[in-house]
Amino acid sequence: MEDVIPAKRTFGRTIMETRKELGLSQKELAAHIQREDGTPISNQYLNDIEHDRRSPTGRHLIEQLAKVLKLGPDYLFFLAGQFPEDVRRHTPDPEHFAQAWSAFRRSLKDGGKR
Q1: In this structure, are 29 and 64 located in the same domain?
Q2: pLDDT tens-digit profile of 7-45?
Q3: Is the Cβ–Cβ distance between 76 and 66 less than 8 Å?
């Protein structure tokens, strides 16, 4: 029997899969996500995000996507390659950061079983 390799978890794939699980169309989700000027994002922009052709341009977009899709914003920030604002404000010295990052990696490897 052949092993199935799971698809890589990406920001776009997570947005698309969760949107579909909630029964939302791209048009419906795009209407709920607003740019900084208050206008909704376009269906095409959301499509590009979902297919990992573009990244969200602002932290506020990630926070809105998390809220509408009922996802943890920290998880979306992680998938987008960003740190949440509260973490960025409290950046420790390099040694403390290395220790925290190492602990984070260990936690991911052992599935949080510690």
Answers
A1: yes
A2: 678 999 999 999 999 999 999 999 999 999 999 999 999
A3: yes
Do 45 and 98 share a domain, yes or no? no
What does the pLDDT look like over 63-86, one tens digit per residue?
999 999 999 999 999 999 988 888
Number of domains in the chain: 2
Query: DSSP strand E in the chain: where?
Result: none
State which residues form the domain around 94: 90-114
Residue 2 belongs to a domain: no
> Cα–Cα distance between 94 and 65 in angstroms, integer?
32
The reply to whether 32 falls in a domain is yes
pTM value surpassing 0.85: no
Contact yes or no for 71/18 (Cβ under 8 A): yes
